[in-house]
Amino acid sequence: MKITPDETCLIDDDLRLKEVVQAVSKASEIALDTEADSMHAYPEKICLLQIRTQKSSWLVDPLSDVDCCPLLEAFQDKILIFHAADYDLRLLYKRFGFRPLSSLRHHVGGAHGRS
How high is the pLDDT of residue 85? Predict the structure, then answer.
């Protein structure tokens, strides 16, 4: 399956993940987000990895029979962009032993005014 720019694909097998790893390896910056089931399960687990480069987006299903280790290795020398990264980074470390070398953590707290 060839992934085209601006297409979002669900990745749930190693063949498709290999294409994602190749594309991620060419990117310098990667936006990354996780979804977990911590409200309804103990221990919590990562249910989805959302990945975006300048050209493509992917949804990786780590609950399927896919080996995420090559993907995480491809992230090591990249700038990773997170929003509210604390929980994402804790989950990635707990599940995969992953610690990024460089990351940009974006979190803007909003003040709610009353009129």
Answer: 84
